[in-house]
Design brief:
Blueprint (H helix, E strand, L loop, with lengths): L3 E6 L9 E7 L1 H12 L8 H7 L13 H15 L2
Antiparallel strand pairs: 1-2
């Protein structure tokens, strides 16, 4: 199975929901993960969520039905990084 990855961005000041800012599989996924690690961006593995996020277009906010799952990811990141 090919590795998949997606990157999310959330700016409370300009967005009402997180946006998918990058996504891909195979080499693209590896590059997304490499860039995240290079910049100390937390990574969470969630195969079910990545399947859903892969259907969202780049620069589009996530749909409301994904809020709970993505909130759990952001909660994990906050607890891990304290920011």
């Amino acid at each position: 199975m090919k590795q998949k990855a997606a990157a999310l961005q959330y700016d409370r000041g300009s967005s009402s929901a997180p946006k998918v800012i990058a996504k891909g599989d195979g080499t693209s996924a590896e590059n997304i993960i490499k860039i995240a690690k290079l910049h100390d961006i937390p990574i969470q593995k969630d195969p079910d969520l990545i399947e859903l996020l892969s259907k969202v277009e780049i620069d589009q906010e996530i749909p409301e039905e994904m809020y709970k799952a993505v909130a759990e990811v952001f909660s994990f990141i906050y607890k891990t990084t304290k920011k």
